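Input.
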Amino acid sequence: MFDIGFWELTLIAVVALLVVGPEELPTLARTTGRWINKARNFMGEMKNELESEVDRGKELKERIAEESKIAEAHRTLSETTRAVSAIKRDLNEVISGDILKPVPKAERDRIEPESESGPAADSQRNEAASDTVDKK
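Output.
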């Protein structure tokens, strides 16, 4: 702790012996020992408390990291839920629209059959129109 060598301790002991006297020196040494012991105990307790607080800080940091991962997962889940809801809403609009409703028989009769429409039917119509132009 302190850099006090043998000669420094000897000098302190001689000065204490001269100032206090031989009768009171053992009492002074005992009292000084008690104060040093209390200071060591206090420093040990403070060290233990600081270490436990550092451990709690690390634990809190880990919890915060876990919570941020959980929050990110919730955000992703929420975005996915919104996307699925939007798709579901769009599908419901398509299903509830006229696309999948049955066509009445009268309207089916008015619509050209599939075989007459398309590129082949268009080319036949164009040939017929060009034949009529050529004949004139």
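The two ends are 123 Å apart (CA to CA).
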